[in-house]
Fold each of these.
Amino acid sequence: MTRIKDPSAAAAAEADLPWLQRYIPLTRRVAADLSRTTLRGRRLGLNVHLDIKMVPVVEALVQAGAQVVVLGCNPHTTRDGVAALMAARGAKVYAWAGMTEAERQEGFRWALSHECEFVSEMGGELLAAVVRDGSTSRQTLRAGMEATGSGILRLQALRLPVPVFNWDGLTLKQGLHNRYLVGLMVWHTFINVTALTLYARRVLVIGYGLVGQGIAEYARLLGARVMVCDIDPVRLVLARQQGGEPVSMREGLARAGVVVTATGCDRVLGADDFPHLADGCILANAGHSNLEIDIPALRRYPTREVRPAIEEVAVEGRTVYLLAKGAMLNLAAGFGDPLDAFDLTSALMLAGIEFMVQHHAAFPAGIHLLPSDVEHRIAVIATGPLSPSQ
Ligand SMILES: NC(=O)c1ccc[n+]([C@@H]2O[C@H](COP(=O)([O-])OP(=O)(O)OC[C@H]3O[C@@H](n4cnc5c(N)ncnc54)[C@H](O)[C@@H]3O)[C@@H](O)[C@H]2O)c1
């Protein structure tokens, strides 16, 4: 049984679809070519951000005959209209905005009861739940796919009984999406939410992977002075090479007007760090976890909402501001990736799912980079006459 907040919310989300469809030619093409023979009757679990851009993916899988079970991978990014629209288009959905942790766990149990053969997700939590499950869902699982660095870290810690395809490591995902789109959209959302510029602001980026590099680069383009903190000294050399100032955490916190976390790890900014923040500092997170900034520890200080998606926190005589409750800023308080750019990602996801169902039996248990043939196919279409820039 589907469990969503409001079935009637589907109509508003549906009104957005024609504009979206116009700008996702690659996804439409891959969707049209999906093999019904491969997908018909297959039980597929998706644990993804329930953003409008995921609707064509779900719809294509349903139309190809798959039985699609959907969870939202982050209650801060779930849109109730999108959950309702996916249900209206034939998926079974268990998700609503602002679910509690207990409700999320209930959602995982609900998904396990569907005994999915294949899982495609963002964050690795459904696969982890299946792997730890004592019931038949573990026996039924054939393969998985993971889209995020945080999810790959989570899955690496498990003894996986099936092959899991990492598509976060592909050039189209890392080199374009992670490196450029997140940075662009984090600052777009920052400006929308705060109504502030970055001119002459000191920005501290914590975590200088591709996501952090994109965030740093766009901050510089928008006039910020960028400091970088990373536990990996090699990444710090890279940051210096690219115009950033490597700093220790304490030094960065004392000087930064804006702090953005992008590490893929929990509590990188924790209780011991908060008293070192400069007065007026604005905190935001771009990493997958809602706990990169230790929100429960920050909430021990007096907190009040001062604008939508901005909370003011009184930390030992100073005032700091938290954006989007510490969830991924660009998704929780913005519209995530631009539609045309995300076309590559959603096309890749659909093609990857088809590959996983067709070829999983040829791979041993464990994590494998999704073979580059899949992204090559998408890249060939993308640079041909269907190019989104046409
Ligand atoms: N907001 C979005 O839309 C979006 C999109 C893609 C990926 N992500 C997420 O962004 C995060 C980062 O992704 P990535 O591909 O850059 O990862 P990455 O693993 O390449 O880089 C993370 C960096 O953080 C550093 N780090 C880890 N712990 C740290 C600590 N305590 N202090 C300082 N530095 C630390 C690591 O050394 C590494 O250099 C992941 O959680 C990923 O899922 C977000």
Amino acid sequence: MGATGFAYDIARQFGLNVIEPRPALVPFTFTDPLIAPIAELAGVSVDARASCGKTSFDEAMLFTHRGLSGPAILQISSFWKPGGEVLLDTARGQDAFARLKALRAERGKLTLPIALAMIVPKRLAAQIAARTHGDARLADLSDAKLQAVAAEIHAWRVKPNGTEGWRTAEVTAGGVDTDELSSQTMEARKAPGLYFIGECVDVTGWLGGYNFQWAWSSGWAAGQAV
Ligand SMILES: Cc1cc2nc3c(=O)[nH]c(=O)nc-3n(C[C@H](O)[C@H](O)[C@H](O)COP(=O)(O)OP(=O)(O)OC[C@H]3O[C@@H](n4cnc5c(N)ncnc54)[C@H](O)[C@@H]3O)c2cc1C
């Protein structure tokens, strides 16, 4: 925030709008009652889909001692607003209900934790079983019950209490309002001769080099104009 904070001060001095900066591309943290079960799974990773509203990312997700991390979480954190929910599919690309139903038909004596471990990592499977039907045999679980178990896998709604903040954030969301700048030269419309580029502008890229690309490209454009 050092360089960006300095840039915001200058922008404000010249009457430019600055969108409230916040950490982005950053892990989520949780409080009770969610943090205990999440921390218990620290080190487990899954192929996930993380969604906020209409935006979703298909990437890996990692359980940690402090909360949720991994590319899927970092990406969706840029779209999450404090107080909001995140929808998580922890077995992206699979159909847990269909799989459980097929297992019930073929091997009805299988217990739920063992069947779930064929779909998600074993430790996560044990936790989902414990909060649904424990060690029940598949043969004893109705379609409705299997559907509810599948929802725990594919539609897990979590409400982060916050993020790990500036300490681990890879970028800053918010910053000098792009409406204040020429998109050709990055020059402030209200203050000729004053340019803003890179991180301090309200442009936030996805993971994968887009933030560097923005920093370099906006710098190049401003340099050409100067
Ligand atoms: C851990 C981490 C990993 C990241 N990984 C990626 C990645 O893989 N891909 C990607 O695209 N982006 C990544 N980013 C984001 C990327 O680093 C930034 O978006 C990019 O560096 C922004 O460039 P910038 O020139 O605008 O700002 P900065 O790189 O922050 O440069 C600002 C410079 O200004 C200097 N400065 C500060 N205050 C003053 C002052 N008062 N006077 C003069 N100079 C000052 C600073 O020392 C610094 O050198 C990552 C960021 C972090 C923190």
Amino acid sequence: MNKHIPPEVKLKEMKPKFPRKAVFIDVQKPGGTAYGENISIGIKTVAEVAKREGWQFVIKDLEEFGLRRAYGLKITVPHLLKTSQREIEEADLVGITSTSPSHWAAIRIAETIAAMNPKAMIVKGGVHETYAAEYLQNKSEYPVDISFVGEADLSFRLLLRAIQERGELRGIPGICFKDETGRVIKTTSRIERVAPESFVLPSPELVDREAAFALLDKGNFEEGLAIPTQMVRVQSMRGCGFGCEFCAIKGKSRRVEPESFVKYLDAVLRAKGTDTVFFEDALFTIESHPAFSTLRRWTSDFAQEVRKRIPQLRFGIQSRSDCMDEKTIKMLYDAGCRSAYVGVETLSNATLRSINKALEAEAQIRAIEAIQKGGIRITASLICDIGTDQDFRRTVETLDRLEVAEVFMEAEKVFPGTKIAQGKEEEVFRFYDQPQSISTDNREDNDSFLIREIGLINERYAMAKAILESNYYKREMGHWIRNS
Ligand code: B12
Ligand code: SF4
């Protein structure tokens, strides 16, 4: 391996030039591409920052192939990167994003890039780096020069300026790197509550189109439409605020103002020639919950703006059943909402309490009925390996009886930064450093730190199959779509 040049030295040695060049890489989806073939919004957001700073860049999507599969076929990382060899050799900066399950793949890629272009500044961000930055930078050989901790809309801009103006790394908030002596430097956290208007939204040309999810595909629901619908994914929100014990989303929820968001949405849809959207906001209707009343008017203002500007809009959201009251359901339907991905987890009260979900099963059932009655199709998301066999069986039978349009389940996982990772951080970090050779029958569990026995998890998938297969078709193990 080449001797690693510390980032502060790299920065000093960079020759003045303009425009500068960057390569951004989205690594892989451990679960394959069943839930979308699209490049992550995170890497598009940092690419947008680079664009605004006048940098030239390419975005390389290795997800189309998947490093896990590539390894199975004995294809090496250099081979995968060959199509971008010239761009990588000419790059001043290479930016990589990953979740925890795709972290090991990102590191293989960073190692290869460091060998291909030892002078390039290699930076990495995303949810894994957010929680593991210091641990990772402490390693004797870590091929990433600078780890970004948390949202990078501001800190990445400051890095690009520091490169351009030969500035200092130490004044940039929310980064972690090694100095010349090998000491780990972690700068102050990013500013927690930057104004919503300082959100960077990827410009329309950076947003991709993809085949719509089954519940948003008009061909499945509107007569005479056989052409598969195309959709885009956008996001108006950062953070959540609920703090469920297994969830890696932290921080208070913040949103782009509804008016400017709808203007942005209109521009994206026109550029992409579609009217179908899936919102990646963690909890689209959060302000319908009494605990989040400060955001109270967001959904109604959004719905009003949509009716004015994009009356043909069709969209899907993610939410919780206690954030979907009748008024909200009607408002959403009138604005074009046709699907809601709802985190049900289980319909056993004891198990709901044990995972801190702050929801009662009866209330969830009432909400599911109301949402469906309101014309919005539901994807019910479950954690398959919590509670007893009987709890799980009853949960799946109830969803079948309620005729929910889609049932999606996966095993409970431990991700860094979550409440369930507390006390075993080192073990969790170490796990995600390596590719894992074992997994359950559901590809969504690939490369993840599972809590329970694989045998038990697979039995639960089989149990769900036995219940659902007469009325649902199997998209993947753990992912069922209702026949009618
Ligand atoms: C959208 C999404 C997906 C989509 C992605 C497709 C798409 N077109 O975007 C799909 C469905 C494919 C997906 C798949 C998976 N996802 Co997902 N996903 C999300 C979701 C809902 C939104 C992510 C997002 O777009 N955020 C918006 C951007 C702007 O924020 P961001 O990504 O954090 O990026 C900012 C910073 O992190 C930083 N940053 C990020 N990358 C980089 C790179 C550089 C170079 C720099 C400088 C900065 C930087 O700057 C950005 C701007 O501030 C999040 C939950 C959430 N609400 O955040 C879960 C989430 C990221 N997913 C998660 C997981 C686990 C998965 C899966 C493994 C599925 C599974 N089995 O659970 C797969 C694997 C994906 C992979 N590549 O590894 C977890 C990750 C937990 C963890 N520690 O790993 C999350 C947090 C959900 C959760 N509740 O726990 N996902
Ligand atoms: S699971 Fe849903 S409600 Fe809970 S913290 Fe995560 S995004 Fe928020």
Amino acid sequence: MKTIIEPFRIKTVEPLRLTTISERRDQLRRAGYNLFRVPARHVLIDLLTDSGTGAMSSEQWAGVMRGDESYAGADSYYRFLRTVRSVTGFDHVLPTHQGRASERILVETLIGSPPAGCGKVIPGNAHFDTTRANIEHAGAEAIDLLTEDGRTAVSAAPFKGNLDTKRLRALLERRPGDVPAVMLTVTCNTNGGQPVAFRNVQRVRAICDEFGVPLILDAARFAENAWFIKTREPGQAARSVREIARSVFELADGATISAKKDGLVNIGGVLLLRDEEMFQRASDLLILTEGFVTYGGLAGRDLEAMAIGIDEALDEDYLRYRVRSIEYLGQKLAEAGVRIVQPPGGHAIYIDAAAFCPHIPAAEFPGQALACALYEHAGIRACEIGSVMLGEHAVLELVRLAIPRRTYTQSHIDYVIEAVLEVKHRAEELVGFRLAESSGSLRHFTARFEPVSRERTATA
Ligand SMILES: Cc1ncc(COP(=O)(O)O)c(C=O)c1O
């Protein structure tokens, strides 16, 4: 059979609420045109993020009931530990409440408390915004070293998440002693959920060994990345996704994981470390803000669900459907002339908003304009990943349609396709925005915007 179906059936349903255009216009005004500020009950299809928004399986819900809520040494913790050790090969495992907690503890473990990081630099393929913010908060610099292919929307190269090893070597030669770690984000969210090749991880590892620098993975989407390695990288097809994922982890000295992605849970994170001394320091920091080392800010039931989710994410029938459903959305949009980041990534389709509304300059946030138009037109909530989120680090003006795992069906996706194409039809009517209120390094969560007048956008 050619048709790839959702490899599950639905046992519990959650009603969606239809709203009118005038209600949505009103919500946009109240929210200062920032979709993070719109209450979820006014959203029909929520593609803001794939993080923590997926559906848990019947096994995970059964696990929730089994959760052991003992403060220390709960059964659920040991179940979590066994699973993470077997999937990753790491002995030192800490649970955290989500990815950014792992990042904060990792950065402090590597370089000390702020501003100890002054003069230090952590290169990566492309840091996720919370990773960058944590590195900068410690006083260090976060540098992105994507290859040329990874920095353009049009190249259809299979591994656009790869780190440019020539630039990495040059940096390490130029600034010996200033680099406490190299980070690889798999898959690379910032440039379109693009995968990193196994060969690239090996090369980065070899350079890290040469310069005596630890290699850390941001492995939020470790299973999707392993699927891409299996299906796109020569010589990898015969290995199972589980084997591939494990061999990627084995090349690293540590990893942060937001389990809200491939952990298939609504909350949870993991910090993995190879070095005993670093693990002790990280454990002390964990106790300071997250909780005791056997629960790390989570309930026993969360640990139980996370252990089952990490395992389920490696199911190849699930991954085939997951990646195919994203590709389907991308194909339909591209065939209708919408420019997207190619090839489709693992968890989202990224629309090139600069190409979608060429009359809106980057300084007036074309991505914000498109995201607001999709919400107003069809109740779809998407996420700007461009000059609003990344400021001067933005390479592209993108709007991300992130697909929650196991949550929406094909007819929901068909509705999204129709909505994007209808907005495209009248794209020249969209207006840009200016920032009315903003603060902090993660301003996209809280900023308020005002539409610029149509006349200004038209002449910009
Ligand atoms: C690649 C990557 N790293 C880290 C994070 C942060 O994880 P969390 O939201 O669980 O703090 C995210 C979240 O979206 C991410 O996509």
